[in-house]
């Protein structure tokens, strides 16, 4: 697939396939003359009551519409080939697993009501389609091998009736959700096209029933057709005076509606029938889940024309394929912390807007999934015709949109790539973010603190913290990566001390880099400044490689993610463990003995986005708190994969939040609503944001915010 797409030939293969399918349909027509249908006992003829001329027209139009649909679909694929190369060299088993998720509706079934509705439509449609294919196979068999007769036909008929019920129930449910439903994400994007599409699908189902009713009436209601109970009942109810004419007209309408459906697939959202499974099949990637796309070593580049994405050709072929897979469900928007607190960012709109630019700038242009009517038409392939910088800078990079998408669209990648262009090519970024850039370049940390203060946190410890260098690097098992917040932020310095104390108590051999440790560059990279990120990252990597560092402990999930998942792109390969994971191991092994709290109290844990959704670490911090006796854990409404961001990720830690409600206030209120006495965190940014939020809401005296290491240290087993 990669080779096809990168060589701009994928659309030709689609066209070739559709031509083959069209020719194959004509061969089926020819094959039908080889084996006459003969006598059918306890069954039915495929073209009962259908004149030869209509049969001819049926096969010719079938072949024609299949080819036209394929041709229109190839134009969409042609748009994908405009994208740049992107390696997706992963095991076939991974792709099959993702495809299986789509085909079995596993990702959609996470949402009970919508999942059931879609499943009814999906299973019903597949059942009816399989029934049609089975009937055609039966039609082409020699008389001696005809199988849709007797008991087999009864089972076949009954199964199709059940499929029809499922199909129409799901469709009417879907129509009701749009007509009388209250979900904002659905109502805001419901258009006349949606009603027309649902009406077409419903008409296909109902015309199939009336065709069946006419045929059964024409055959004088034989007893074995009672198993086609819907068609039988409808035929009996209508009491047709001319069943022959009624059946023929119903058959024509049913066939024509299906031809319209075939043509509508590439022209409407119906294309997700094909694009969504394809996208899921191609979604596994080589890089880790939490890593941004590597764009090469910019510090060694001789000539740089562009960084990031501005025009459609700057995106990768997979990013463009994503756009046509969108079902416009809006789930990404419903979980976006920026959108839910009144910011201009709408993840669904990002996909739809970029999709509109891709579609309308294509040669030739093709219909967008949801186009903007009126004068707001795309005049070029520049995405910033439709997307504002304000939208992009509101993103916290929490990855909630990617996590919830039922068809594996990678929304965050696109936002971060567009940020790269804004930051490096346009210098279009918030002014306060520029201060953080300067601090990272000049002071090697976004706080702007002196590197000589990196060890200040050790001054009042009752034990020595060794600093690793060329002479002693083989003496220590772990490098303890303190992080900028852990070294310079007043709230997080006690966390650093607590972790060091616990490691010392457990007999863990560790050392620190001291002033040689510089910012990992996470905030720079998430805000698009790849140059600053690479400057900092390469400095750290060269230093650690010279010291032959192998294993690293971090207390910051952002540092954890960057070192573990992104430093390998630049030659830094290390075994990285988050402090919550190591502390959990030490508790479980008995090297740290946990006691019981002096007084019972309630704790709620706030999931860090970069620990959770970016790296799938959810249980370790909870196990630390859960190991302490006398503590009741209360989960927030949104937790785990559905957790709500604190608002600091994606470089938002260094930007002002002046629009709408503050994200940390929204999350802090949710924590307070649990009735907990304490909010546990496992991230320095989360610590700052949640502590600020609780205090701003007026609960600073009643609800404490603390890192899990501090809670553990306070509840060690008494000697």
Q: What do these coordinates show?
A:
The structure is a single chain. Helix 2 (10-31) runs antiparallel to helix 3 and helix 8 packs antiparallel against helix 10 (243-267). A four-stranded parallel β-sheet has the order 2-1-3-4, with helices on both faces. The chain has a four-stranded parallel β-sheet with strand order 6-5-7-8, with helices on both faces. With 719 residues, the protein is mainly α. Helices cover 52% and strands 5% of the residues.
Main CATH class of the largest domain = Mainly Alpha
Report mean pLDDT, rounded to a whole number.
Answer: 91
β-strand number: 8
Can you say what the CATH homologous superfamily of the largest domain is?
Transmembrane di-heme cytochromes, Chain C
- Alpha-carbon distance between the two ends: 63 Å
CATH architecture group name of the largest domain: Up-down Bundle
Radius of gyration: 31 Å
- Poorly predicted residue ranges: none
* Number of individual domains: 4
The main β sheet shows up as: 4 strands, parallel
The class by helix and strand makeup works out as mainly alpha
Order of strands side by side in the largest beta sheet? 2-1-3-4
Label the overall shape.
elongated
- What is the count of DSSP helices, taking H or I runs of 4+ residues? 29
**Helical amount among residues, as a percent range?**
40-55%
Strand percent estimate: 5-15%
- Looking at CATH, which topology of the largest domain would you report? Fumarate Reductase Cytochrome B subunit
């Amino acid at each position: 697939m990669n080779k096809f797409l990168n060589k701009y030939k994928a659309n030709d293969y689609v066209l070739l396939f559709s031509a083959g399918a069209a020719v194959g349909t004509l061969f089926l027509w020819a094959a039908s003359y080889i084996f006459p249908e003969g006598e059918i006992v306890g069954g039915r003829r495929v073209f009962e009551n259908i004149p030869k001329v209509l049969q001819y027209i049926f096969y010719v139009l079938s072949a024609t519409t299949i080819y036209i649909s394929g041709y229109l679909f190839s134009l969409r694929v042609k748009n994908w080939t405009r994208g740049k190369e992107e390696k997706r060299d992963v095991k076939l088993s991974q792709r099959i697993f993702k495809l299986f998720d789509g085909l079995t509706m596993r990702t959609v079934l996470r949402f009970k009501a919508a999942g059931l509705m879609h499943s009814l439509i999906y299973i019903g449609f597949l059942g009816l389609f399989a029934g049609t294919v089975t009937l055609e196979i039966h039609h082409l068999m020699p008389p001696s091998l005809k199988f849709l007769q007797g008991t087999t036909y009864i089972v076949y008929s009954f199964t199709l009736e059940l499929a029809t019920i499922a199909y129409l129930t799901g469709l009417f449910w879907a129509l009701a959700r749009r007509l009388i439903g209250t979900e904002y994400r659905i109502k805001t994007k419901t258009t006349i096209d949606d009603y027309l599409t649902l009406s077409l699908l419903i008409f296909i189902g109902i015309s199939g029933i009336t065709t069946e009713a006419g045929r059964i009436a024409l055959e004088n209601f034989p007893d074995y057709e009672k198993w086609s109970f819907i068609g039988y009942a409808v035929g009996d109810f209508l009491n047709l005076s001319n069943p022959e004419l009624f059946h023929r007209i119903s058959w024509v309408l049913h066939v024509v509606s299906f031809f319209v459906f075939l043509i509508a697939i590439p022209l409407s959202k119906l294309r997700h029938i094909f694009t969504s499974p394809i996208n899921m099949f191609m979604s596994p990637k080589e890089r880790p889940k939490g890593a941004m796309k590597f764009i090469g070593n910019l510090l060694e580049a001789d000539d740089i024309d562009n960084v990031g994405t501005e025009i459609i050709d700057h995106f990768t072929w997979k990013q463009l394929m994503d756009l046509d897979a969108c079902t416009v469900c809006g789930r990404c928007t419903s979980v976006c912390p920026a959108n839910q607190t009144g910011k201009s960012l709408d993840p669904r709109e990002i996909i739809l807007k970029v999709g509109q630019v891709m579609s309308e700038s294509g040669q030739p242009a093709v219909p967008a999934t949801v186009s903007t009517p009126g004068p707001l038409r795309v005049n070029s392939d520049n995405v910033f015709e439709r997307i504002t910088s304000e939208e992009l800078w509101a993103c916290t990079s929490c990855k909630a949109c990617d996590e919830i998408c039922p068809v594996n669209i990678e929304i965050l990648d696109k936002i971060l790539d567009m940020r790269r262009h804004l930051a490096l090519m346009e210098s279009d970024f918030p002014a306060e973010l520029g201060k953080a850039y300067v601090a990272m370049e000049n002071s090697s940390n976004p706080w702007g603190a002196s590197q000589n203060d990196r060890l200040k946190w050790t001054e009042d410890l009752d034990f020595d913290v060794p600093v690793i260098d060329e002479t002693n690097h083989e003496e220590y098992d772990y490098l303890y990566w303190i992080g900028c917040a852990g070294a310079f932020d007043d709230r997080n310095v006690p966390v650093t001390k607590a972790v060091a104390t616990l490691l010392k108590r457990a007999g863990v051999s560790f050392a620190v880099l001291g002033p040689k440790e510089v910012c990992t560059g996470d905030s720079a990279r998430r805000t698009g400044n790849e140059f600053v990120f690479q400057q900092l990252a390469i400095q750290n990597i060269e230093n650690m490689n010279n010291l032959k560092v192998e294993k690293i402990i971090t207390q910051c999930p952002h540092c954890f993610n960057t070192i573990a998942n992104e430093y390998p792109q630049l030659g830094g390969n290390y075994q990285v463990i988050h402090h919550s994971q190591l502390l959990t191991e030490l508790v479980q092994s008995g090297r740290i003995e946990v006691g019981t709290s002096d007084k019972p109290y309630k704790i709620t844990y706030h999931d860090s986005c970069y620990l959770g959704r970016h790296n799938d670490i959810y249980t370790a911090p909870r196990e630390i708190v859960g190991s302490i006796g006398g503590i009741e854990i209360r989960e927030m409404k949104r937790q785990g994969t559905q957790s709500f961001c604190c608002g600091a990720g994606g470089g938002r830690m260094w930007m002002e939040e002046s629009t709408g409600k503050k994200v940390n206030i929204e999350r802090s209120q949710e924590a307070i609503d649990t009735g907990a006495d304490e909010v546990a965190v496992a991230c320095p940014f989360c610590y700052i944001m949640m502590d600020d939020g609780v205090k701003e809401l007026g609960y600073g005296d009643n609800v404490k915010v603390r890192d899990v290491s501090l809670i553990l240290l306070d509840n060690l087993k008494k000697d």
